[in-house]
Write the structure tokens for this entry.
Amino acid sequence: MSLNVLTPQLKKAFDEQDYSLCLKLLPKIKVELARFNLLVPVTSSDGKKFNPEDLLVTRYILEIGALASINLKDYKGFQNYINQLKPFYKQNFKKNLKSQNQKKIMALYLLLLLSRGEIATFHIELISLPNKNLDLKEIENDLYLNYPIKIERWLMEGSYDKIWKLINDNNSSKQLKEFQIFNSDLIKAIRLEIIDCIEKTYENKKLALSNVKNLLFLNNEREVIDLINEETNWVLQNGFVYF
């Protein structure tokens, strides 16, 4: 099938939030894009530049791939689409042709990196954002990008309570439903960071079980015991945790 047939089908599936169908259609569409050398926004071998409208269509198709992947928690697929989108985001399009999805998608990518604990890569990607046609003021004030930036800053400061409140703030999470996909992974990453801090901070190497519960933002002592067994070599004895 041609792009003229497949692309409207993809848009319809995405608008209807049928993300599985999107991922089924995309390989066929990418074959057609590759056939016309549209998957990479570079000058062709004969020196002919691409029509900007063709690049915009390809960019939109790849963005659907990224958003469909993240909604299905296909993180590997999402990463692949991010890599394919980066050259398009570096293109110097006119202001009215800038992507409406770029900041949202890059914010999701930054959240993915945070949830994996890939802080160094997070910083590299954050520094490179101005090279993707985003100025510093635009980045700092953006509704989407500001979310992972605040989480990373507070993570470095050890302000875990601020992160906890932000993640559990219904008003913040409504800004983008895809943010909620990372909540459990981010909370786990925060708890592992707190565990590391506890081991380094308390010289007597023990804490009351109730204190550990509060520090790790857990609801009850059973959850503390489960987390200790899963993630640490700590020992529980007589209401105290030894590490």
Notes: The first helix runs from residue 3 to 15. DSSP finds 13 helices and three strands in the chain.
